[in-house]
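Re: [ENG-882] Designed sequences occasionally contain unexpected residues at chain ends

Forwarding the minimal case from QA. Structure tokens:
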């Protein structure tokens, strides 16, 4: 049973989300312009370079796309196209890169890699790192630039990283294959250190205070005013120098983040709490009946195999459920037309807890039955008659010995 529970959790966490079908997006002349406008609005509201995590960035973009659908500016069938471009991006993935690979047949594909060094050419093909954040823009004409992650310095032999220290606080000095490499540590618009070579690179002195984003709302839901915090001026942007330390301003962020003047990132690279009690309200713990109801709902989910209609995703067969079959459900994120994996996983936990309660009840029942059987066996043995042939008795009735 323990293996079954672990398997269920593993299945839930690896289940692919089911986005809306967007095959019909593009069959109207205005679709392309509407998608471009929605993406531009998302870029303005959901800053890529300062995204605290990839998930939060995609969630923010999905919110912008949903707003555009509600306002009639974007067809519902095109919402997934906007979200997909955000999902296939480097936003919220420090150090990652959009890698354009061209195979021997001339077919070009784009993948988000963990770093420029991971962007390697296929056999008889070529590869390059794009300066665009999203794969939707990375591999077009002029949209791909060769990877540039190191400064050009004379080769220097080394054995350990310490042999490569050049005294520059804006470079990470490493010994790779006996040769020193000095990778640029740049400060992006979010104020955190990352590798971003090119004109956007900034390397201010480490001791200089800069504007950093604070933690915002656990779930992005639109900007609201902050009492006592002034709006940010035009030059008060993330990554810019500031004074005095501790000053704050309100940039009007969709997730209600503020800017704070500090020497280092107060969020430690975006490690903001989103599940603490202080961030939530209307907390109600589930009882046995609630867990049983969720367990029954989970067990009734109809599973199916399917392929997406989008040509670039049609070759792979997926396993999961179709949200249209189960709505309304806590396992569905209706605003983004996706599976709510956190809700789905919690339903699986409810099913496991219900199963554990049932197993415990069965064990208590079995233990009680065993005790009852032992009592009955003891009573039976106590009441069993003594065999008349077991003893030899004298005529007077005294026992003389065992019969043979």
């Amino acid at each position: 049973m323990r293996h079954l529970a672990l398997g269920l959790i593993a299945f839930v966490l690896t289940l692919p989300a089911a986005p809306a079908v967007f095959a019909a997006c593009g069959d109207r002349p205005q679709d392309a312009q509407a998608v471009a406008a929605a993406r531009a609005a998302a870029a303005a509201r959901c800053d890529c370079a300062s995204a605290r995590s990839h998930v939060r960035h995609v969630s923010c973009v999905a919110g912008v796309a949903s707003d555009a659908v509600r306002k009639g500016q974007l067809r519902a069938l095109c919402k997934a196209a906007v979200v997909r471009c955000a999902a296939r991006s480097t936003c919220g993935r420090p150090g990652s890169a959009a890698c354009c690979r061209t195979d021997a047949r001339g077919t070009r594909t784009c993948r988000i890699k963990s770093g420029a060094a991971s962007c390697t050419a296929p056999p008889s093909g070529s590869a390059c790192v794009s300066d665009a954040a999203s794969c939707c823009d990375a591999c077009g004409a002029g949209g791909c630039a060769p990877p540039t992650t190191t400064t050009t310095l004379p080769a220097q032999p080394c054995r350990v990283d310490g042999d490569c220290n050049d005294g520059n606080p804006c470079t990470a000095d490493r010994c790779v294959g006996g040769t020193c490499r000095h990778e640029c540590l740049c400060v992006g618009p979010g104020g955190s250190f990352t590798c971003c070579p090119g004109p956007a690179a900034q390397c201010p002195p480490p001791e200089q205070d800069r504007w950093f984003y604070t933690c915002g709302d656990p779930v992005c839901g639109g900007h609201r005013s902050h009492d006592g915090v002034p709006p940010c001026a035009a030059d008060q942007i993330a990554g810019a120098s500031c004074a005095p330390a501790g000053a704050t301003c309100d940039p009007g962020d969709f997730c209600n983040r503020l800017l704070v003047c500090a020497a280092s990132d107060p969020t430690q690279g975006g490690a903001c709490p989103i599940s603490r009690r202080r961030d939530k309200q209307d907390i109600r713990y589930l009882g046995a009946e609630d867990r049983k109801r969720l367990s029954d709902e989970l067990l009734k989910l109809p599973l199916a195999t399917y392929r997406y209609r989008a040509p670039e995703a049609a070759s792979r067969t997926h396993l999961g459920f179709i949200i249209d079959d189960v709505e309304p459900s806590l396992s569905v994120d209706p605003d983004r037309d996706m599976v709510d994996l956190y809700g789905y996983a919690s339903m699986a936990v409810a099913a496991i807890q219900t199963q554990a309660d049932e197993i415990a009840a069965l064990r208590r029942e079995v233990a009680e039955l065993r005790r009852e059987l032992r009592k009955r066996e003891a009573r039976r043995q106590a009441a069993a008659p003594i065999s008349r042939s077991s003893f030899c008795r004298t005529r007077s009735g005294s026992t003389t010995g065992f019969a043979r």
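QA comment: On inspection the terminal residues look reasonable. The two ends are 56 Å apart (CA to CA). Proposing we downgrade this to a documentation issue.
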